[in-house]
Write a structure and sequence with these properties.
The chain is an alpha+beta fold and about 260 residues long. It contains 5 helices and 10 strands, in the order βαββαβββαβββααβ. Helix content is about 20%, strand content about 25%. The longest helix is centred in the N-terminal third of the chain and has 13 residues.
């Protein structure tokens, strides 16, 4: 049987999603918990790997097992063996042709910036912090240059292993909600550090250090060294993985009410 899971996690205590020997990762925590419920080793395939410190409200994985459990048991049983910073949101028996990564047609991220002079305390590691006043209007103007299908080589990490830098960026919206500036991004896929590098460029423009057209100049350069500083992973959330309706994958309700967003 093939089972899909929806997962929420606080990534600030983990060295990213992907399993690494000798360090704590979200994948390792989930697989250990699942293996206890199944009484046999379980390995999961994820829709998208997240970096150290990055959070998720809508991560999706799948795994195969011969063990018979109800969807409810996979949710409650697995969460029982997870730390408080990781939880299973839903479980669903899926068709054999469903693949958490390759069946996905869109990924959605949200980047939350606390824009005030004082650093965050209660929201430490849950939001990024920018002490410089940000002009959202300038950031929106800059974001328009990045929409569409482009070569995002200048906006990916030098160590990115993706075979192609071409991505279709379908949404890049910036809104202010009080002291928070929120960046929402939708694409067919994202490159390593792509959101954080875009956020770094937009913040430099919003702070008045660069003109709005600079985002287009960085894009056209296809050179990562031409871009700005990579923004902090704090405040970056994998919000949702979108699949064709035929798979009937549950949608996750917005869990950002804490921020009034």
């Amino acid at each position: 049987m093939r089972i899909a899971l929806g997962i929420e996690y606080d990534g600030s205590s983990y060295c990213g999603w992907q399993y690494q020997q000798g360090v704590e990762t979200v994948q390792n925590a989930v697989e250990v918990a699942l293996s206890k419920i199944a009484n046999s080793p379980i390995r999961v395939i994820t829709a998208g790997r997240t970096d150290t410190g990055v959070h998720a409200t809508g991560q999706v994985v799948h795994f195969e097992t011969d063990v018979i459990r109800s969807d409810f048991s996979w949710v409650r049983g697995t969460s029982r063996y997870l730390a408080d910073n990781v939880t299973i949101l839903w479980a669903k028996h899926v068709r054999d042709d469903f693949h958490a990564r390759f069946s996905a047609i869109e990924r959605r991220y949200r980047y939350i910036i606390l824009n005030r002079h004082e650093r965050p305390a209660i929201l430490h590691s849950k939001v990024s912090w920018e002490y410089r006043p940000l002009d959202v209007g300038r950031m929106k103007e800059a974001a328009r240059h990045l929409l569409g299908c482009h070569n995002f080589n200048a906006y990916r990490a030098l160590a990115c292993q993706a075979k192609s830098p071409i991505r279709d960026l379908r949404e890049l919206s910036i809104e202010r909600a009080g002291q928070f500036v929120v960046i929402n991004a939708r694409a067919d896929g994202f490159l390593h550090h792509m959101i954080r590098n875009i956020a770094g460029v937009l913040c430099s423009i919003g702070a008045g250090e660069k003109d709005p057209d600079w985002s287009a100049e960085v894009l056209a350069s296809e050179d990562r060294t031409y871009g700005g500083v990579t923004a902090s992973p704090d405040g970056l959330y994998l919000n949702a993985i979108i699949y064709p309706e035929e798979f009937h994958i549950p949608s996750v309700k917005n869990t950002m009410g804490l921020f009034g967003l």
